[in-house]
Amino acid sequence: MNTAASSSEPGVRVEIDDVQSGALRPRPVPYEGKFVFLRVDDRHAGRALLRRLLPLTASGLPSADRSQDAWVAVAFTYQGLRALGVPQESLDSFPRAFREGMAARAELIGDVGESAPAHWETPFGTGEVHIALSALSSEAAQLDKELERARVAYEDTPGVQVIWQQDVHQLPTGRTTFGFRDGISQPNIEGVGLLGSNPQEAPIKAGEFLLGYPDETGSPPPMPSPDVLGRNGTYAAVRKIHTNVAAWRRYLRANTASAEEEALLAAKMVGRWPSGAPLALAPEHDDPELAADPHRVNNFLYRENDDRGFRCPAGAHIRRINPRDSTIIGDARMHRLIRRGTTYGPPLPEGVLEDDGADRGLVGVFLGAHLERQFEFIEAEWVNDGNFIGHPGEKDPVAGHHDGTGSATIPEKPVRRRLQNLPGFVVTRGGEYCFLPGLRALRWIAELED
Amino acid sequence: MGSQDEDVRAMAPHIRVLGDPRTDPWQESHAMTATTGATPSAQPERPGRSDGVCSEFTVFTKIKPGHADALRADLAALASGSDDVKGRAALRQIGTLHDARHVIFDNDTRFMFASVFDGSWDTYIDDFAKTVIGSHFDTIFSHSEGFPGISDPGVKEWFVAHQAPAKSFVSSYPDLTVQQIWKDHRVDEAFEEVLDTPEFRAALDNPANAELLATPAFQKLLEEAAA
C-alpha cells in the first residue's frame, strides 16, 4: 500500500549485459514481432541450436539508434529444460508453478469454460512446447533480418521442430483490437537504468523481476540450482488471448443511450480513454494532448484524488492490475509485473457490431521473478475476483472470464451504477510458463554434456 | 453456496501435480479442500478447511523452556495501549482476518495460534509480513522452538509444518468476507439513520413515491425497516 520502498539498499547493480533484452526492454512503438515455438526431439540437436542462437540473443538496454534495434529472446518451458537434458536435480529446484506449467494451473488462474486447456490451440498445454523464441523490433526490415538469422539456426538443425508461429504487429491505429492504446505503464526497477513510466512510483527492488537480487521482502527470490542457471533469469507467462471485439461493442451499445455515454462506459471499464489518457487525470473526456505527453500520461496515484473511484472505478482494468496506492487488501508493490502486450490479427473495422469470424487479440507476456505471487496472484485475486477492493466475486470487466452473469460496480453519485450480465470479452487460446535465463545460463544449458 | 457436507467438500477438485516427482509435506494432506463457491487462491495446496469464502488456520508450537512468562507479557502488551491501536489499524489494512486467538497451555509448554481468514491462509501472507502484524508475529513466535523469523523465506513452510487442520470447520456466514461484513455494517448504520428522520416518514406517505415503494426491491427494504 505504501509507495515508498520499504528499505532502501542503494547500490544494487544489475548485471544488465547478462539479462536478455526480452526481459526488461519496453516494447517499441510501433513494433513488429514474431513468436516461434520449437520442440526438441534430440537434446544434442537442441543444444547445438542454442549455440547457434547465442550470438543472436540480445542483452542489455535499447540501442541509441532505434532503427537498428531488434532483439531475439530465448525462453524454455519446464518440459523444454528436461528435453535439453538439464539434470533432474536442477529441474526439481524450480518453483512448483513453473514445473507444473500453465495448463495445470488453469482452474486457479481462471482459465475455465471456453478458456479451459481442453479448448486451447495446439500445441499450447501439450507439453510439446520446449523453446519459445520471440523477436521484436521497431522496424519490419530489421525484424526480418533477425528472424532470417534465427530461422537459419533452427531450420538447419534436424532434431528440432518448429511447431507454432505467431506474427504480431501494431495495428495502424496504434491501439489494441478493443481500440485502446496500451503498453503505457512500466515499473520503475531499481538498479536497471530504465526510467519507470510513473515518476511517483518509488523504485521496486530488482529481485521482483530478476533472479539473484533481493526482492521487496529483503530476500532474493527462490532460484534454481546451480546458481549460474538462475542468476539474471526471470519467468514469463506467455498467453494468446482472443478478443471478442464485436461482443464488446454490442455490450457498450446496449448499455448506453448515446455515443458519448458509450465512450465513457468503455473508459470506466478500461480505466483509460482510447488515446491512453487515464480517467484519474481526465475523468470526463478523452484528452489526446495529455495522452501524448510521456511525462503526464502515467503520472498519477489514486488515493489522494480518487480514493473511492468516482473517476476511475476500483474495478476498472488498469486499476485492478496496477492499483498503485489505492486502498486495497494487501500491498500492491508485492504484486507488480512487467506487462508486454502485442496485437495479432486484423482489426474489426470501425462501427462493425457483428463478428466477422477473424481471429484477433493479443499475445501477452507477463514477466517477473515470482510466478505465484505475481502473475497467478493477479489473475486469481485481482482479475478474476474483487475481494481485494471489497467487491467479492466481481471480475475485471474487460479481462475477467465472465460467463454472461458478471457484474461490475461503477461508483457514481447519488448511487453507484452496477453493470449486469457481463459476457466474456476475452478467451484464452493457450499459454505457457517459460523461464527466460540470462546469457551465461543460456551458454551453460547449451554446453551441457552427456 | 458452500455445501455443509464435509464429505462433499473434501472431494472438491484439487489442483493436482502434473509430472511432479517432488512431494512437499502439505501435498499429502487429504484434509485440504478447495473453497466452494469462492475464487481459488494462488496456493490451493495448503492444508486447512474452508467454509464458503473463509478458511481456518491453527498452529501448535512448543514454547522455549523458560519463555512462557515473556510470551505472556508480549501478548498482554499487544492487547493494550498504542500497540493495540496499531494492531487494529493493521487489521483494517489486512482486511481478511475474521478473528485470531493465542493460547498458552499444557503447563506453559505449548502454544496455539488459531485464526479464520478470507481465502486461503497464504493468499496474502507475503503482504501480511510487511505490516505491523508481521512484527507482532515475529515477537510472539520468537518464544517458540525453531521459529525462523517472519521474513525468512522458509517461514510459510515452518507454519505449515506446525499446522493442525481442523476436522470440522463451519461459519455462520459462509458468503460474507470481512470486507463485506464491514460494508454491511456501514450500510445498516446509514439505513437506521435514515429511518430515524421525519423526512423519510413523510417521503413514505408522499403519493409521488408510490411507484418506487411498490417495487419488490423497496418492499424488501421496508420489511427490514418494520422491526
Automatic annotation (TrEMBL), chain A:
Domain DyP dimeric alpha+beta barrel residues, every copy: 69-151
Key word Metal-binding present: yes
Protein name in UniProt: Peroxidase
InterPro entries: Dimeric_a/b-barrel, DyP_N, Dyp_peroxidase
GO cellular component annotations of the record: cytosol
Molecular function (Gene Ontology), one example: metal ion binding
Taxonomy, superkingdom: Bacteria
Cofactor(s) for this UniProt protein: heme b
PROSITE patterns on file: DYP_PEROXIDASE
Record keyword rRNA-binding present: no
Family: Belongs to the DyP-type peroxidase family.
Keyword annotations: Iron, Metal-binding, Oxidoreductase, Peroxidase
Top-level taxonomy: Bacteria, Bacillati, Actinomycetota, Actinomycetes, Kitasatosporales
Species for this entry: Streptomyces caniferus
From TrEMBL, chain B:
Protein source organism: Streptomyces caniferus
Protein name (record): EthD domain-containing protein
